[in-house]
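Quarterly update from the structural biology core.
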Amino acid sequence: MHLAHNETTQVNEGNNVPLDTEETAGSPINIFCEEMRIGEEQLTNLKPEIIRVLARERLVCETALARLRDRYRPLEQQYGWTTDEFLKKFSAGEIGDNQELFLWYALTQAAKDWQATRNSLEELLASSERVGA
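Predicted structure, tokenized:
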């Protein structure tokens, strides 16, 4: 199952994981608007078809997030940690470096990327509704 949708780095036998996008300056919605040369005044001109495509993409993000969570929930149960607890321990180097833990980390990073994309789409859709109201 391919979970990443932007630039990826290869992690162990075909698991694709998105590169960290936090280094990108500005919010994803601002970057999108700049790249598409869309200003607040132009959001009212988005065709209904475009709004539907953006809403559909938001659902794709939500589905990907649900699938990723379904994949790391068993790890939470197996190790007895929440994902937040795991990330703190992993980042601090307090736990091992077995392949399963790296997979869990990769899944959380993919979820983080999908969540950022979903949030950007939500912001864009909300902006188009506010401007159009």
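Residues 77 and 83 are 10 Å apart (CA to CA).
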